[in-house]
Design a protein that fits this description.
Elements lengths: L1 H31 L11 H9 L10 H5 L19 H14 L1 H13 L1 H24 L1 H26 L4 H49 L1 H14 L26
Helix pairs in contact: 1-8, 4-5, 4-6, 5-6, 6-7, 7-8
Length: 260
């Protein structure tokens, strides 16, 4: 058990270390690539108008965008109330639950028959989790399958805990439930570690790719520098401010564009 706990603590640390290293190498590899990235500034009138009247969120966004937008979340970061979700979206969530989490779906249907307000409150908490899994299934089926398995185990764990507490006067039944709970927690642990191992492999592949790009850029250093200087010299000068006889060195308002 101590080894499991140490592994659980070490894996997130390794993920954080790999993630930071990938970010640093990504920045370095990006800087080494040729070609400037020109940043355009909108006219003053446009910037002022944008500051006075924020652009409302688009209604045609995909599921991933809706989850992180005001359409799906309130300004305080709380999930959007279940009853405020569009009817088709609610039906999709319920069908997904019925297919992948049948026991949870049946429990929620019974709760809706007894107390619609409690049902709405619980679905408000459950809906973002279901949407996240649904989106992951679409983009990464293997990871999504692991997320479904984790959620199924979590639900079964909670059910077992409830039965254990209800059998407080039956020591033999409690012992059976405790052994079953140990087995469930072990499976959830292994499932979670498998998903984290996938993340580690993805970060390691990304790290290897960035290291290769940095090595290639180092070999092309003279050519990249010449290309960068040529691009800087060919860049058109900033517009004149209309003052004649001003021989001061021009100081453009825009910062120097970063290379891609």
């Amino acid at each position: 058990m101590n080894q499991h706990r140490n592994c659980l603590r070490a894996t997130p640390s390794r993920l954080a270390w790999l993630g930071g290293l990938v970010a640093v190498l990504s920045c370095a590899a990006t800087y080494a690539q040729p070609g400037p990235r020109v940043r355009t500034r909108p006219p003053e009138e446009t910037r002022a108008a944008q500051g006075e009247a924020p652009i409302p969120p688009e209604r045609g966004m995909g599921l991933r965008d809706r989850q992180g937008s005001p359409e799906m979340r309130r300004p305080a970061g709380r999930p959007r109330p279940w009853n405020d979700l569009p009817e088709p979206q609610r039906r999709n969530i319920e069908r997904f639950m019925e297919e992948h989490f049948p026991r949870l779906y049946v429990e929620m249907q019974r709760l809706e028959d007894r107390d619609e307000m409690r049902y709405a409150r619980r679905m408000t908490r459950i809906a973002p989790q279901m949407l996240k899994i649904m989106e992951t299934i679409r983009t990464d089926p293997q990871r999504g399958t692991l997320m479904i398995r984790e959620r199924q185990l979590e639900f079964e764990i909670q059910q077992t805990i409830a039965r254990f507490r209800s059998a407080k006067d039956d020591a033999a039944q409690q012992q059976i439930l405790r052994e079953h709970l140990d087995d469930l927690v072990g499976k959830a642990f292994d499932c979670r570690n498998e998903r984290r191992q996938m993340e580690v492999r993805e970060l390691e592949a990304r790290l290897s790719e960035l290291q290769t790009r940095l090595s290639e850029s180092a070999k092309m250093r003279p050519a990249l520098i010449r290309q960068r200087v040529a691009d800087m010299l060919e860049k058109p000068p900033p517009p004149s401010d209309g003052v004649e006889g001003d021989d001061r060195v021009p100081r453009p308002e825009d910062p120097e564009p970063e290379p891609e």
